[in-house]
Specification:
mainly alpha, 2 domains, globular
Length: 394
């Protein structure tokens, strides 16, 4: 099985029709809404963010009469969820999931990937998208926000790139990784000024439906809640599904600092930036985008199974962006990603393996980690020039 055999399947008229891929993602959203109508706790939390902002009560307190668990999104989220909070529950849930799936679909379509790359993303990530939709998670939008940050910088739309970076940061912090594309910008001063502008605007935006004092206080509470959640995530069964969690849960050690892994990870992530001559190649920039999409989940203690839609898109970009032909080992690694990382949370995966091995040891992160390490090696050692230009240079 080769890279091109997979491509040939996706190029069949049915699979390659844009209407098919769009319909598939919308059907997944509808199916998730119907399946989760009576068990949509996350969506209840999200709706509560809006109403608690209106009432100016704590966004980070427990409300057992309304839902279980707690909100961990920033105050800005109150405006994003507002249209879905004022409608009847099922209407709000359905439109919320449709918008999330549609937002990511549009981000992929606008991403400047080839249609072949887009097809691969739409089909390979479909099951992982469904997992995220079942959890009603904003992680789907975070993936879109990172893609759009990259797209806007590529298209020299730095003002809007700054908007998406700040938006993602003030909702779930993950959006800050859009700064990784800073060195690809041709207008860095404009980008910095735009970040300051949008930082001020979006920080203050929730004050429209509350008050300045309340919102400032909620940002303080948000920081405190994230600090507490980070400690709780260390050995949580449903959280810290990351490289950090994998190592900690396998070793059962609580005495070391995550910085022992984060700092080497940052160094490995940053080394490809020194290959300045590769910046001009689209494939190299796309592969850095893939690295960002994987890194943000692998090195976060807050990573959940439903957040893996983000690194899954990164895996697709890694596989398709390279200007060389993928090997059988690459295909095997791709299959390993799909089976262990995507299928393991589902009923199609053996329950014993899921409960006794995958969940307790955060093994969902293992295949993505292997892809990321291979990606880092490739970015440090391979030439990303298009095939034709390499041949011409010889």
């Amino acid at each position: 099985m080769s890279h091109f055999s997979i491509t040939n399947v996706l190029q069949k008229p049915f699979f390659s029709d844009r209407r098919t891929t769009f319909a598939l993602w919308m059907i997944l959203a509808v199916a998730a809404a119907v399946a989760k109508l009576h068990s949509c706790n996350n969506f209840l939390i999200f709706r509560g963010v809006f109403w608690h902002t209106i009432q100016q009560t704590s966004l980070y307190a427990e409300y057992p009469a309304e839902y279980f668990d707690m909100n961990h999104y920033g105050p800005l989220f109150s405006l994003l969820i507002a249209p879905f909070a004022v409608t009847p529950l099922f209407v709000g849930l359905l439109t919320w999931l449709l918008v999330l799936a549609g937002f990511l679909y549009v981000a992929v379509r606008w991403s400047q990937f080839t249609w072949r790359q887009q097809l691969f993303i739409f089909w390979f990530c479909a099951h992982e998208l469904l997992t995220a939709l079942f959890m009603q998670q904003f992680n789907i939008a975070i993936a879109a926000i990172i893609l759009l940050s990259y797209y806007c910088i590529e298209r020299e739309k730095d003002f809007w790139a700054a908007f998406f970076i700040v938006l993602g940061t003030l909702v779930k912090l993950y959006g800050i990784v859009g700064l990784a594309f800073f060195f690809f910008s041709r207008h860095r001063v404009r980008l910095v000024l735009s970040l300051l502008f949008w930082g001020a605007v979006l920080f203050a935006a929730p004050m429209i439906i509350s008050s300045p004092e309340y919102i400032v206080g909620q940002y303080v509470e948000w920081y405190e809640s994230l600090t507490a959640k980070n400690a709780d995530n260390m050995f949580g069964s449903g959280t810290n599904i990351s490289l950090l969690g994998l190592v900690r849960k396998v070793t059962h050690c609580a005495t070391y600092s995550d910085l022992c892994l984060i700092l080497p990870g940052l160094a490995l992530f940053g080394l490809p930036y020194l290959r300045f001559s590769q910046y001009r190649h689209t494939a190299f920039r796309q592969t850095l985008l893939a690295s960002v999409l994987m890194f943000v989940v692998l090195f976060s203690t807050g990573s959940e199974s439903s957040g893996y839609i983000t690194p899954f898109i990164g895996v697709c970009i890694w596989y398709t962006a390279a200007p060389w032909r993928r090997t059988g080992w690459d295909v095997a690694l791709l299959i390993f990603v799909f089976i262990l990382s995507s299928m393991s949370p589902s009923d199609l995966f053996p329950a014993y393996l899921r409960k006794e091995w995958v969940q307790p040891y955060a093994l969902k992160a293992l295949p993505i980690t292997l892809v990321w390490l291979k990606l880092c090696w490739e970015m440090l050692s391979r030439d990303y020039a298009p095939k034709d230009s390499r041949a011409f240079s010889k």
